[in-house]
Specification:
Layout (H helix, E strand, L loop, with lengths): L2 E5 L2 E4 L4 E8 L7 E7 L6 E6 L6 E3 L7 E5 L6 E5 L8 E8 L9 E4 L3 E6 L1
Parallel strand pairs: 2-11
Antiparallel strand pairs: 1-3, 3-8, 4-5, 4-9, 5-6, 7-8, 9-10, 9-11
């Protein structure tokens, strides 16, 4: 049984930082592309950042380029999203997903977690 679990969300002030973590069990972590998605109330789901299974290539949405960094540890399993210079518009539920390329476009998602809430106050 595959389980994808996110952690690290919370409430921070604008300009602050958070680091999200994701662990995936029941699958061969190193064989999957991984990514972070978010959905704010009344908005469509957005692919925030994705990383290839090897870690060799990354993708970032324009809205987070230069502020967010995705990384993975194929030995210890976790996927991370370091979020800096946070803005109120970053407020959303953030989901971790495992899948295949080109996952950040919304296709190729095989497994997804239940999400973690990120709230940025102004």
């Amino acid at each position: 049984q595959v389980q994808v679990v996110e952690s690290g969300g919370g409430l921070v002030q604008a300009g602050g930082s958070l680091r999200l973590s994701c662990t995936a069990s029941g699958l061969s972590f190193a064989g999957y592309d991984m990514g972070w998605f978010r959905q704010a109330p009344g908005k469509e789901r957005e692919g925030v950042s994705c990383i290839r299974w090897s870690g060799s290539r990354t993708y970032y949405a324009d809205s987070v380029k230069g502020r967010f960094t995705i990384s993975r540890d194929n030995v210890k399993n976790p996927l991370y999203l370091q979020m800096n210079s946070l803005k109120p518009e970053d407020t959303a539920i953030y989901y971790c997903a495992a899948g295949t390329f080109p996952m950040c476009s919304g296709t190729g998602i095989h497994y997804r977690g239940k999400g973690t809430q990120v709230t940025i106050s102004s």
